[in-house]
Design brief:
Blueprint (H helix, E strand, L loop, with lengths): L1 H9 L10 H9 L4 H15 L19 H77 L7 E5 L6 H8 L12 H8 L5 E9 L3 E8 L4 E5 L2 E5 L5 E5 L7 E3 L16 H19 L8 E3 L6 E5 L4 E6 L4 H14 L5 E4 L10 E4 L2
Helix pairs in contact: 5-6, 7-8
């Protein structure tokens, strides 16, 4: 019994085998597996530290006792993790659903806006198409209805050209449909008359047409054979007539005789001189002697000549400088030398020289 107790005391419970000693030696010679080596190392470390974890130790011949408390804790932790994971998943799902809802809302808004625009566009197209159709229908009715036939033509602003002449030029006829009348063509026809400066034609529905004209007026004449060429203050040739008008005659022009055609204009040099002539006439009119001027010679632009035939006098004006002083001097000499034929010289600098009157001998 003592021997058996000694043998039992020498037994290593952790490396116990039922085989005999020889088999133990064989087992010792065989290289242990890696897992066992790891376990043995763990055991050694634990023994060295003086602490043995009985929960992790395996005793041969004894069943392993599971730690129920530990399992419970692990189960609780896993359950908590699962619940937290579920909560996170539900939150993520909610976020995703919110985002998808937002995207859907944005898409639905855009689609609604696009649809609204399409509806508006279609309404506009329908509106304009209806208007265009109605306008066309009205025009067709107006062009065929006798209600819009012209019954009266009114002419305004004419002095030189008669009403009948203007109507004949327009080629607008009574009982002609007002919408079938080409107003632009009628205007162009009236403007062919050189006396007409501007024209405006209006319809007065349902049956009237109003023609407003602005005429050019004869300001000067140019001698042309036995007749005269009527010219306005802008150099437009208005008419060639044998009748002499109560307007000044311009002499010394450069325009060729072949160019004296109604509707034409004087040459560039003559037009430049005409601008000076207009200034002379304006100053003379302000000094109340314009009605005494019968001729103006523009041959020399540095020395314009003014003829007062009723006063039997000729004035040498010089150029266009200091016209007011020159015309005033001429007026004073005409009044002083009333009924005396002679020549007036105001073509010098009147600041240093006095005007001169020379009586004809």
């Amino acid at each position: 019994m003592v021997k058996k107790a000694k043998e039992m005391s020498n037994l290593n419970l952790y490396n116990f085998n039922a085989d005999d000693n020889e088999e133990k030696k064989k087992v010792k010679k065989v290289k242990p597996k890696k897992k066992l080596a790891k376990k043995n190392s763990n055991v050694k470390n634990k023994e060295e530290n003086g602490k043995i974890d009985l929960n992790n130790e395996i005793v041969i011949g004894l069943p392993k006792i599971e730690n129920k408390d530990k399992d419970k804790k692990v189960n609780k932790k896993t359950k908590i993790q699962q619940t937290t994971n579920k909560k996170k998943q539900s939150k993520n799902k909610k976020k995703k659903s919110k985002n998808t809802k937002k995207v859907k809302k944005v898409k639905t808004k855009k689609q609604a806006e696009i649809e609204k625009r399409k509806i508006k566009r279609n309404l506009k197209i329908a509106k304009y198409s209806f208007l265009s159709i109605s306008i066309v229908a009205i025009i067709i009715l107006a062009m065929t209805s006798p209600l819009f036939n012209i019954k009266e033509i009114i002419v305004e602003g004419n002095e030189k050209i008669t009403k009948d002449e203007i109507i004949s030029l327009s080629k607008i006829n009574i009982e002609q449909n007002t919408y079938k009348t080409n107003m632009k063509k009628s205007k162009k026809n009236i403007l062919e008359n050189p006396y007409i400066k501007n024209v405006e034609i209006k319809r007065s529905l349902p049956s009237k047409v109003i023609i407003k004209v602005q005429e050019r007026k004869t300001a000067f004449m140019i001698e042309y054979g036995n007749g005269y060429v009527y010219v306005n203050n802008q150099g437009y040739i208005l008419e060639i007539s044998a009748q002499k008008l109560e307007v000044p005659i311009i002499q010394g022009t450069e325009t060729n005789v072949e160019e004296f055609v109604p509707g034409g204009r004087l040459t560039k040099n003559d037009l430049e001189k005409m601008s000076t002539v207009i200034k002379i006439m304006e100053v003379a009119d302000n000094n109340e002697i314009a009605n005494l001027i019968t001729r103006i010679d523009i041959e020399n632009k540095n020395n314009y000549k003014i003829l007062f035939e009723t006063e039997q006098k000729v004035a040498y004006l010089g150029d266009e400088t200091d016209l007011n002083t020159k015309i005033l001097s001429i007026k004073s000499i005409i009044e002083k030398e009333k009924g005396v034929a002679g020549e007036i010289f105001v073509n010098s600098d009147l600041k240093d020289n006095n005007p001169v009157f020379r009586q004809n001998v």
